[in-house]
Amino acid sequence: MITLKRYQYLGWILVLSIIFFSGCGGKSPRAKFYTLSAISSSEPVDLVGNISEGIAVGIGPVKLPRHIDRPQIVTRSGPHRLVVDEFNRWAGSLNQDILQVLTENLSILLASDRVAAYPWEKFFDPQYRVFLEINQFEGVRGDYVVLKMTWTITGKESNQTLFTQKTEIKETMSGSDIDTLVETKSMILAKLSRKIAEQIIILHKDGK
User: Fold this and answer.
1) What is the pTM assigned to this prediction?
2) At 47, phi and psi to the nearest 5?
3) Nearest-angstrom CA–CA distance, 176 and 90
4) Of the residues 30, 49, 131, 208, which has the fewest C-beta atoms closer than 10 A?
């Protein structure tokens, strides 16, 4: 014979089972996907100067540190701690995203449709090649984003170094959300693009 206590005990097991399985069947947060953005083609461009012909420039490859070369967006929560966000991700490869943005930016800044991302087609023969080694490109949410890197410009032959520079660009974030973080990263790439474009123009004017 099943006693009242036995009924109560079975009832509690049933209630807990429903709660447990309801939790297991609940929807987990959906991931959001982001891309970096290039500068607007409507922005005033004052870098071209007296250069009339389209300069042929090859951008890349770009070398990224392993800790940010991943689908998840990486931020810092301190000098020695990284946060890998499973629910905020890059829509594609971060490496390719950076390459694409730099290519679009330089095409606008140099007023040239002869700017290509690595690897370019065999028929494309760039006058200048830009190699980039990024050491740090992340930030603290609500605080800042920093880019630390070395970039090198070579001539047609990749072993002919014309210019090399270590660059650090730091931008303050206007908010703490991921949208602002990505926007700030795009602003930093715009500043880097201007530095590269200015140096290419100097080299081109000097005939190097």
Assistant:
1) 0.83
2) -95, -25
3) 18
4) 30
The pLDDT tens digits of the residues spanning 61-107 come to: 999 999 999 999 999 988 889 999 999 999 999 999 999 999 999 99
Return d(Cα 50, Cα 64) in angstroms, integer.
35
Tell me the three state secondary structure of residue 126.
coil
Q: Say which residue the tokens 């795009």 belong to.
A: 186
Q: Which two tokens stand for residue 47?
A: 């870098």
Query: In angstroms, rounded to a whole number, what is the distance separating the alpha carbons of residues 107 and 197?
Result: 9
CATH architecture of 34-206: 3-Layer(aba) Sandwich (3.40)
Q: If DSSP codes are grouped into helix, strand and coil, which group holds residue 49? A: coil
**Structure-token pair, residue 171:** 């931008």
Residue located via tokens 């020695």: 80
CA distance 80 to 142: 18
